[in-house]
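User: I want to check something. If I give you two sequences, will you return the structure for each one separately, not as a complex?

Assistant: Yes, each is folded on its own. Here is the first sequence with its structure:
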Amino acid sequence: VSRGRLYSSASFLLGFCMAPKKKGGKKEGKKGGGDADGELSPQELLRRAAFRIESLERQLAWREEKVAAALAGQRDLKEKVSLYHEDFEREKASIFDIASDMTRQYKGMQEDLQGRISTLEATVREHKEALDQARAELEEERRGKGDALALQKG
């Protein structure tokens, strides 16, 4: 602490550190190192002011350390939040990619199944037509043979 700063601070604090003046009453003898009227000497005021300044400076330094620690903690937390946010965005993108891939696979399988169903339906239709044709031919042959037997008997 510079002397100029100390003296200017000390003179400012003189107004706060001075003991109140005694009003009336008998004056007693000297007690301690002060004047007879109860005021402190300028050296004692400066000493007290210097102690007060030193105490305030220590308190200020302690508070500055606390603020610096709090700011460092805040920076750390912001960094962690930023990392968590980045991880979240990566996971979100990954999940979106997986869901898109699964949707694409599902649609592909659905198209394949629709194609298979169409093919099988066409096959069933063809077999039904062939069966109907075979039944018609069988019925025609039975009628023809029935007619032939009726002609032979008759």
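And separately, the second sequence with its own structure:
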Amino acid sequence: PSDVFYPDWFAGAWRATSELVAVEAPQGDAIAGQRALKLRGTLGTSAAIEKYAQRYINYRGHVIADRAYNVRSLVRSSGGLESVDWDPSNPNSLTVTLKRDGTSVRTQLKITKRATGIPQGREGDLFNASEFYQEVVGGDYGSAPR
């Protein structure tokens, strides 16, 4: 799918706030890692709320999310970032490598579907976007994805 094209008023830097509301480990707690398990204890507290920078840039005549910057900003606030690879000419693929419990963990995100919308009567101040993605997590660089 093509990238999300944001309204012109999105261009620039923003402060974002995210709140952790659940920690699930569908493949089991051992794979989730100690840090993820510790985060369960923060649910419902101020420690579950993170504030970080986001940036939206002009690219080929459209305003798009600077995904590499935004992921770096979010992950830096929680620690463990090693690298982020993203190219705005291929908005459907992003790779992040984190240090989790002393091991480099590579995560590849592949966007499979996007939707955008502006509610009627809110054209000047509201914009909705959603993305569906496949997340493939591997261990260190030499291991196969799980």
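Because they were folded independently, the notes below concern the second chain alone. Helices lie at 29-32, 34-39, 67-78. The radius of gyration is 17 Å.
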